[in-house]
Amino acid sequence: MTDDMTKTREIKALVFDVFGTVVDWRSGVAREAQAFLSRHAPGLDPFEFADAWRREYSPAMEEVRSGRRPYVRLDVLHRENLVKVLSRRGIAGVPDAQVDALNLAWHHLDPWPDAVEALYRLKRRFIIAPLSNGNIRLMVDIAKRASLPWDAILGAEVVRAYKPSPRVYSETAEILGIAPAELCLVAAHNSDLAAARQCGLATAFVARTTEHGAHQKTDLEAQEAWDFVVDDLLALAALLGCTA
Amino acid sequence: MTDDMTKTREIKALVFDVFGTVVDWRSGVAREAQAFLSRHAPGLDPFEFADAWRREYSPAMEEVRSGRRPYVRLDVLHRENLVKVLSRRGIAGVPDAQVDALNLAWHHLDPWPDAVEALYRLKRRFIIAPLSNGNIRLMVDIAKRASLPWDAILGAEVVRAYKPSPRVYSETAEILGIAPAELCLVAAHNSDLAAARQCGLATAFVARTTEHGAHQKTDLEAQEAWDFVVDDLLALAALLGCTA
Questions:
Q1: Which ipTM score applies to this complex?
Q2: Which ranges in chain A belong to alpha helices (H)?
Q3: Mean pLDDT for the stretch of residues B197-207
């Protein structure tokens, strides 16, 4: 038996990073930002706006990870970050309801073209769930709109901590009633996989080379010998024996 | 507009009691108990055994609800209760692995005949999720086996408290980002609905008159004027405008 087959037989559940791995956040946020900017700041590039908003993501979560701030949902952090980005660009006087509406852009993201079919295939053999920093309602809205057939919504809000805090990976295995090695994290980000491996999880890297646009420089390839390395989720399904 | 229609327009999400409301726990547990008892205690009635096991359910959770014991998953309580029931019936010397296997009976329950189709219909219009005292893995296993198309697994483990503690209902609305009145609990048990109503939730009673067998005496009908009262979940779907 090959190593892949041994590993596959051990895995009971697959959990997925979502932003960048399952859905294309940048195009989705830019699409909704475009409509907003055309009213409030015509001339600003909606993709640049999406990138600026996303740059606030990790520092905002770090406040929670470090313990300086108690856990709050990602929807709350996203809105605070949005207010910052608007203010820095001199966009003022926007009614609260319009800021709220733009904040929902993260709830309306499209899946990568391979994602839905691959999840349906993988679901037949494995428990599948998001392991995202996004909160439960955010994950539910994305899944309903995109028809992602999750078995459960796991991740940050269930354990009240943000990746890459070890608790998120370890407690998720515990919730699923399985050993860490029986749980595989699927992600397009080497750092996420490294943290999962530290906790004993199996790891699958999926290359999403345009997550940050055509000139992406990070996470173009696997930086460690992850258990599975694939170009998309259909390839992962095939590797794990889940064919059409 | 009728009251029903106003109420329906307000509701954004439906959460369901599961044991008794969506699945037939008694027949499922008795089925697996039968195989077990035929080896270890032939002559014992598997339905009586299921009832005895279920009678330990509420007192065990009360230890957690009262604060005398920190939250532990229902799988753990079920196993402790099983050991008690076996011991009281003088069934001794059963290998741990066989006790573990019987404990999984709760993971293998069949849905009532109307449940799956009704949930598919309701899912098109509402967020649907279990709001059970069962833990996440237990709910996932039931859902995968029975094809229950939940949008998320909510309930006791997510908030680390047991119904009818008010936290379970209130925090679930908060997690979903909606007002309590926009959340409707669907349950076959008047006491569950009363606790939900206390927290401001909408309420739907579904009559499950054989949950406890042919001679059931409790919860045969609605004991308060719940917002919706139906004979099965397909009738609820129709009442909420979700037809085939």
A1: 0.96
A2: 3-10, 25-40, 46-55, 57-65, 74-88, 96-103, 115-125, 136-146, 156-159, 166-176, 190-198, 233-239
A3: 98
> Do B17 and B155 touch, CB atoms closer than 8 A?
no
> Measured on CA atoms in the order A205, A207, A212, A218, is the torsion positive or negative?
positive
Q: Best mutation site among A123, A158, A182 for testing chain B: the one with the most B CBs within 10 Å?
A: A158
Q: What sign does the CA torsion over B48, B116, A241, A144 have?
A: negative
Report the gap between the CA of B151 and the closest CA in chain A (Å).
Answer: 6
Asked if B182 and B169 touch (Cβ cutoff 8 Å), the reply is no
Nearest-by-Cβ selection for A175 from B137, B149, B176: B137
Please name each of the domains of chain A with its CATH number. Answer: 3-24+109-239 (3.40.50.1000), 26-107 (1.10.150.240)
Q: Is there a contact between B175 and A135 if contact means CB atoms under 8 Å apart?
A: yes
- This prediction has a pTM of 0.97
Residue among B202, B208, B210 nearest B228 (CA) = B202
pLDDT tens digits, A156-202: 999 999 999 999 999 999 999 999 999 999 999 999 999 999 999 99
Q: Which helix (H) or strand (E) holds A20?
A: none
A152·B144 Cβ contact <8 A: no
Secondary structure (3-state) at A184: strand
Adjacency order of strands within the sheet including A183-187: A154-155, A127-132, A13-16, A183-187, A202-206, A228-230
